[in-house]
Design the sequence.
């Protein structure tokens, strides 16, 4: 296998199939499948969506990527038999991937190879000679609705998009296509609205700038027939931000059948309407003044920006002002600012962590919407540091201004066996209440006295002792209404006898402005999580980033000396004030999961409590280019439901196992496959694969 001296990422996703041509250029049963010098199986890909660019290039899929696809090679077989088995596996699949380029160390020639490969079954309407067109999919968000999107198409507006370089046109010169999917269309499993004749002017790191529609050119608006469209299209990433569509679907005959035209955009000169603009931008300016709580400099900055926006608005047309609001709204969003601060802190020289961006956003959303979040993983992966970095980003970690009870990291001791170890006890001999040295009680008292301050309590190595013993009261009261979350410190009957009962009353409220986070190692020195704990928490297993990616972070910036402005509890709660009910499709998905799990594990399933927590999490998930509703949905399945899948091989065999070809199979896998419109479920599949391997090796999955 060639080793690359340098690597570059063209930044574009490709779709392709196994290229079964042999060295003579003729198709054969095992053409394009190679056994490398180390005995590993690899194969060649043929790109289907960039006609001509890779006609004379070989796109290698190296043995490690073959393994990552879930294919299990048996080296005991003969070479030809191994190739035939892989050929059977590849012949049913289509692949979406990145192409990386580098120089071979052997001969200095260009070397192209595929990475980040996503495998999908070939659709019913797949034709071997198909060429595909890449179409970007724009999703409705709080900052972008369909009207704003259409305004941007016509007037040359800027719209956020995760990978601007992905727009392409057909080889016959048709204009580019784009799709907009509303929340309602997404909920009903529809693909959305197709726009035909779109022109792109430019693109930056995270936006596409459309070409203003000339008076003589119209953009055709089409309603996609989802049933027919699904026979040929493929979604190209976890965020479902692009789709690959056969070029023949976009030619006039099939296009009119599969996506009927419902209207046109453009072709009419626009008149200016300055007055409404000032009103709309003033609204945006008012919103921007609320961005950072208790941060005078930041507020002054936003006020100045708001004044400038109003001045500019007087010179703009209605559609131009709308475009300005679309592009500026994300910058005015306090939650995205917090996520940026969190990212900067994690990546700083002081913290030195290397984590996936989506995992950071997922952690933030979990803490925001759950009273208890648990981080699990290998020892030394930075779980405690992540929580500290989050406190730093919230502005509640005081390094220069003395001590603060707003962030309290408590180290759990193996000897703890009841809540007296965590909270303290009543010393009736000396008529005093003795608070524990954990400092938790002082944090709760302080939080009750300062309801607009946010507090974060961390239980470090939470499972060194049995959580259900020392944290038992909290597990019960956190499920109650906020005003009923009372922790008992001692009997009320002895309250008059204690000298310090005025400071430490018999009962103390766990206020809403306190969030709890636990870190857990998974090894022989710790206790396993109980179903009770899993049901009451969001359990996050941090993913390991490839070691080579850490090298790219060698030159880490230092944090600025001044602290981040503190975010109040009120401002923090404003980030989680959305509500939406699960759709009937989502509810049906969870019901099928629940039924399947309960058939194999009678005492395990999805409770109403779990369903309510998932609903709250999804309703308040921040939307970024990569962290979409589909990604958030996958996180919740992996974090709230799959941790409950535990037991012996006999108990779980129907749910998950490897089939004879080494493919992940079982009832849970079937449910995920049947629900591809909700998510591609890459995280959930990895969790199931790990559990299937545990069953295979140990006979038990934990």
Sequence:
């Amino acid at each position: 296998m060639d080793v690359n001296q340098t690597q570059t990422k063209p930044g574009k996703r490709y779709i392709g199939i196994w290229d079964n041509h042999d060295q003579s250029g003729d198709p054969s049963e095992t053409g394009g499948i190679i056994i490398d010098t180390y005995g590993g199986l690899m194969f060649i890909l043929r790109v289907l969506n960039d006609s001509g660019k890779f006609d004379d290039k070989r796109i290698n899929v190296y043995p490690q990527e073959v393994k990552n696809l879930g294919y299990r090679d048996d080296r005991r077989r003969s070479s030809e038999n191994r190739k035939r088995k892989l050929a059977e596996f590849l012949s049913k699949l289509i692949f979406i991937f990145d192409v990386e380029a580098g120089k071979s160390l052997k001969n200095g020639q260009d070397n192209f190879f595929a990475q980040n490969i996503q495998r999908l079954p070939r659709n019913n309407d797949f034709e071997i000679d198909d060429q595909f067109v890449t179409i970007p999919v724009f999703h409705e968000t709080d900052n972008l609705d369909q009207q704003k999107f259409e305004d941007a198409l016509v007037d040359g507006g800027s719209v956020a998009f995760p990978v601007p370089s992905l727009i392409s046109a057909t080889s016959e010169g048709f204009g580019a296509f784009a799709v907009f999917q509303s929340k309602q269309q997404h909920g009903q499993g529809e693909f959305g609205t197709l726009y035909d004749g779109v022109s792109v002017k430019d693109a930056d790191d995270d936006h596409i700038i459309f070409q203003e529609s000339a008076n003589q050119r119209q953009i055709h608006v089409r309603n996609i027939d989802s049933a027919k469209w699904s026979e040929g299209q493929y979604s190209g990433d976890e965020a479902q931000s692009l789709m690959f569509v056969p070029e023949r679907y976009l030619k006039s005959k099939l296009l009119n059948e599969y996506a009927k035209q419902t209207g046109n955009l453009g072709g009419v000169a626009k008149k200016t309407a300055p007055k409404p603009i000032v009103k709309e931008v003033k609204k945006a300016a008012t919103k921007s003044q609320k961005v950072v709580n208790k941060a005078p400099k930041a507020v002054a900055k936003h006020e100045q920006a708001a004044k400038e926006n109003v001045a500019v608005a007087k010179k703009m047309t209605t559609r131009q002002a709308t475009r300005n609001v679309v592009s500026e709204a994300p910058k005015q969003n306090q939650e995205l600012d917090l996520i940026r601060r969190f990212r900067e802190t994690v990546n700083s020289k002081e913290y030195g962590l290397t984590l996936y961006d989506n995992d950071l956003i997922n952690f933030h959303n979990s803490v925001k919407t759950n009273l208890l979040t648990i981080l699990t993983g290998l020892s030394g992966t930075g779980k405690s540091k992540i929580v500290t970095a989050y406190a730093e980003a919230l502005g509640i970690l005081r390094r220069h201004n003395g001590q603060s009870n707003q962030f309290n990291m408590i180290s759990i001791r193996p000897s703890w066996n009841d809540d007296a170890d965590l909270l303290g006890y009543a010393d009736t001999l000396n008529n005093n209440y003795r608070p524990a040295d954990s400092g938790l009680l002082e944090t709760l008292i302080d939080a009750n006295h300062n309801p607009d301050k946010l507090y974060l309590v961390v239980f470090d190595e939470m499972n060194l002792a049995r959580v259900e013993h020392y944290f038992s009261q909290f597990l019960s009261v956190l499920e109650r209404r906020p005003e009923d979350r009372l922790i008992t410190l001692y009997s009320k009957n002895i309250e008059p006898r204690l000298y310090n009962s005025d400071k430490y009353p018999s009962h103390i409220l766990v206020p809403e402005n306190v969030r709890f986070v636990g870190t857990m190692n998974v090894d022989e020195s710790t206790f396993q999580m109980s179903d009770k704990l899993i049901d009451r928490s969001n359990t996050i297993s941090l993913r390991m980033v490839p070691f080579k990616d850490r090298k790219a972070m060698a030159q880490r910036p230092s944090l600025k000396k001044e602290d981040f402005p503190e975010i109040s509890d009120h401002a923090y709660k404003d980030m989680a004030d959305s509500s939406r009910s699960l759709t009937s499709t989502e509810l049906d998905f969870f019901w099928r999961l629940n039924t399947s799990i309960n058939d194999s594990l009678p005492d395990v399933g999805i409770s109403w409590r779990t369903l309510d927590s998932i609903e709250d999490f999804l309703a308040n998930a921040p939307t970024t280019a990569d962290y979409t509703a589909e990604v958030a949905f996958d996180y919740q399945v992996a974090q709230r439901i799959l941790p409950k899948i535990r037991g012996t091989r006999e108990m779980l065999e129907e749910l998950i196992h490897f089939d004879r070809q080494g493919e992940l199979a079982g009832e849970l896998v079937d449910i995920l496959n049947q629900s591809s419109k909700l998510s591609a479920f890459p995280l959930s599949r990895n969790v199931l694969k790990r559990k299937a391997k545990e069953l295979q090796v140990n006979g038990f999955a934990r």
